[in-house]
Amino acid sequence: MDLLTPDTGLFIFQVVAFLLLLFLLGKFAWRPILDGLKEREETIETALLSAEQAKKDMEALNADNAKLLAEARSERDAMLKEAMAAANKIKEDAKEETSKIASKMMDDAKASIEVEKKAAMAEIKTMVAALSLDITEKVLRKQLGDDKAQKALVDEYVNDLNLN
Amino acid sequence: MMKNSRTNFPNLLIISVLIALFSFSNSSNLLASSDSGDEQKEEGATDFIMHHIADDYQWHIVTLGHTHVTIPLPMIIYDHGELKFFMSSDFYDEHHEPIAHEGYMISHGKLVRAEGGHGAADSHGESDGHGSDDDHGAAADDHSEAKSDFLNLSITKNVASLLLSAVLMIVVFTSVAKRYKNGVAAPKGLQSFFEPIIVFIRDDIAKVNIGADKYQRFMPYLLTLFFFILFNNLLGLTPGAANLTGNIAVTLCLALFTFFITQFNGRKAYWMHILWTPGVPLPLRPIILVVEVIGIFTKPISLTLRLFASITAGHIVVLSIIGLGFILNSLALGVVGTLFSAIITVIEILVAMIQAYVFTLFSSMYIGQAVDDGHH
Known about the structure:
The structure holds two protein chains of two kinds. Chain A is mainly alpha-helical. Chain A has one domain (15-162). In chain A, 93% of the residues lie in helices and 0% in strands. Chain A has helices at 8-142, 147-163. In chain B, the strands form three sheets. A three-stranded antiparallel β-sheet of chain B has the order 4-3-7, with no helix packed on it. In chain B, strands 1-2 form a two-stranded antiparallel sheet. Chain B is globular, with a radius of gyration of 25 Å. Chains A and B meet through helix 1 of A and strand 7, helix 5, helix 6, helix 7 and helix 8 of B.
């Protein structure tokens, strides 16, 4: 039964010592420890959150970069395409122009050839007419009796003609 | 392999020396008290166990043959308005038999008023130590009479142990706290041992049972409570130490702290629940009221008895196993018993932690019930 009877002296010491412990440990141990723990947890959490944020920012930045790159690429493609088109057009235009000029030159050449030809023909005609007149005049002037002499004369004149 | 065994060897040596010391310091008493007849042997064993569990006015370290190595402790008596100081050694003669001193004497581990002052001392001196049955009866009567007569504030073995552990706790935890004051740093040394326990008490005991918004106010109490019980449970397992947490005055005191904290923090919902339990048919309410009011008081009683019984029972088991070898006077049993008691002591370390946890857990649960706002 002695074991189950609380001892007054020990009880009083226990109350005093425990209150003292509560006060001293509360003030000099638990508060700094709990505050320190809290501070550390908050620091870690903030650090983790900011790391997460940095990661997100980095990802966003990367995405932005990729977007920019894609944009630049497509822009370049567009420019290239445009330039190609322009070049082709220029080429086409040039070709067309050239063929136009060529056909015009051809036409001009044809026309001038025609004119030359006509002029030549006209000249030939006048020459033939003049020659015929000449020959006729010479034939008429000689009036030889024999056909032989007439023929020889004609040949002579024709040869003369050829020499021209 | 070599390196391992080399580092383990000193540890092993220390452990074996501790075990030897433990069994030696405990058993030497028994050996001294059990050298006569069989009946007396068993009685001696019970005395030996009770002696180690009960409080004492001196700190008995070890008995070498017939030489008792004890530290006398100061005695403080508050008798009718005057404080008296003695040393406990004043109450024993050179043969370690109790004698009367200044009108007081220690009888059966209790300080009582000696009848007729020095006259009693003389009669004791004549009867040479082990007093007759008449003497015992007189002392017991005296004791029951004297109980309310004067206040005994002596620094007993338990009080000394209490003060030592309090100093130890303050030294340990202020040194741990120092590491937190210099801003954020990774835990180190002693801090990394205690920090997980503190975090566990905060997160898994206080926060869970009291609520995340109110637990902070009770953290100093719960931490002090837990570490007080843990330190003293573990210290109680060391050889020659006091059985502080196995003393009902100590456990009662701790339970009363929880009791008063619970009652003083009781919110409206708590008292409503006790006095006029909602959701119960009207005729049943007075009955529930009685049950609930009884419940207020059974909580501290269960707290008191659980810790007291667990620790005391553990000590009794260890001491009984050691005592067995002496009662049966067998060397083989002594060896086996010592080994077995070492194993039980290891289990007791676990019990020491579990009881500290359980006491704190239940305290936080009771506080949690009291501070609950009742929105459930």
